[in-house]
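Note to self: keep these together.
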Amino acid sequence: MSLCEINQPAPDLTLEGVSGNPVSLSQFKGKKTSSLFKTEALSDNSTKSTWRSCA
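Structure:
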């Protein structure tokens, strides 16, 4: 996956929403959104990424 750049379209991605249903960035197409991605290290040396978006 390529890096995202400020003020450029983001690649579409789908992650699990709070309700457990999939949420895709493309669902917000045409709306102004703000996204925050956070990656954290877990105790088993794997990583976990979280995504927050506001429309």
